[in-house]
Amino acid sequence: SSEPLDFRARKAILAEASSIFDDVFSRRVRVHSLKIHSSSRAEHKDGLPVIVLQEDSATLDTPLQLCYPIPKKPIQGIDTLARVLAASIKYLMEGSRPCFERTSAD
Q: Most buried one in 62, 68, 72, 101, CB count within 10 A?
């Protein structure tokens, strides 16, 4: 995140959830060209690669959780929903789309 808070996530899961992350991890796209890296932070921590994203931790938490088969927390507030949706679209996280769509039962 843009804050000094790290999310630990599995590369394979992120790559499956987002073609953006798949491209970054397979080095088809340089992280710098996506403007998702800040040179002011380390590129590795505890021996693991770090990708610094522009969004704050509250915005990134939900899209990252949507990648995993765990119970989902409800999104609180329209402003949060808008930021989470924007991040999901930005990182091409297609699997999160059903969480934002209305069903006929709604």
A: 62
